[in-house]
Amino acid sequence: MLVDVITNKFGSSLSTNDLYNSRLFFKEFQRLRDLFDDIMTTEEDSIKKSYNNIVIAEKNGINYKFIDDIISNKFKNLLKYTQGIKNHPNKKLLKHTIEFWKKQYIILFKPLLISYYINKEEYKKIYFMFKQI
Which one of 36, 69, 74, 91 has the fewest beta carbons within 10 angstroms of its own beta carbon? Predict the structure, then answer.
């Protein structure tokens, strides 16, 4: 929604197609970041009884692999949207964004996600360690 408001209010020099794909990219990226935030805050959100996709999925018997598939599809969608952008001044930055967050997912978020489902005590240790960084 923020992307729509900004481009509607301030306009854009992008072509209609590039603007459309840019909006799709940023919307998908925001959804991905929301999932990453849910992974990072499962401990806090389960204590606060806040809405959290990961906590709700685990309580309803949905395997972490399902969440992993959703995240993998989001990365594929992001790549597809960048390929649909022909003339964006920051296209390289969009591609670097995908690469950076994909590595962060593999190194940080996926191990946390798996630990949350398999060993909550290990999750708490890893979570505490990352919160200190």
Answer: 69
**What digits encode the pLDDT tens for the residues 43-96?**
776 677 777 888 889 889 999 999 999 999 999 999 999 998 887 777 788 899
CA distance 111 to 94: 25
Using alpha carbons only, give the angle 110, 114, 117 rounded to the nearest 5 degrees. 145
* Calpha distance 131→22 (Å, rounded): 32
Q: Indicate the domain borders of the chain.
A: 2-132
The percentage of residues in the chain with a pLDDT greater than 90, rounded to a whole number, is 37
Q: Are 1 and 23 spatial neighbours (Cβ–Cβ below 8 Å)?
A: no
Cα–Cα distance measured from residue 58 to residue 81, given in angstroms and rounded to the nearest whole number: 30
Neighbours of 46 (CB within 10 A): 16
Residue 84 tokens, joined: 């649909």
How many angstroms separate the CA atoms of 108 and 52, rounded?
18
Q: Are 43 and 102 in contact (CB under 8 A)?
A: no
Could you tell me the two tokens for 80?
């597809």
pTM, entire model: 0.81
